[in-house]
Amino acid sequence: xxxxxxxxxxxxxxxxxxxxxxxxxxxxxxxxxxxxxxxxxxxxxxxxxxxxxxxxxxxxxxxxxxxxxxxxxxxxxxxxxxxx
Length: 84
Hints:
Blueprint: H1 3-19, H2 22-36, H3 40-48, H4 70-83
Helix pairs in contact: 1-2
């Protein structure tokens, strides 16, 4: 079971687990751990944690503006070559 299918399975089980009583939660938790291979304590944290919404879209990071102008770069290149 890959990560994507585990997240989908968590989304399907999440609301059922939250509405269940203690006995039903034990059964659901056992089933969830058996199917995903997660440790029981980690599975409890996932099921009691915030709602498993789809992953938020990553925002593109703005690139840093160039520090030196093209004229300065050519002069620095000449100095670098002269210095060896």
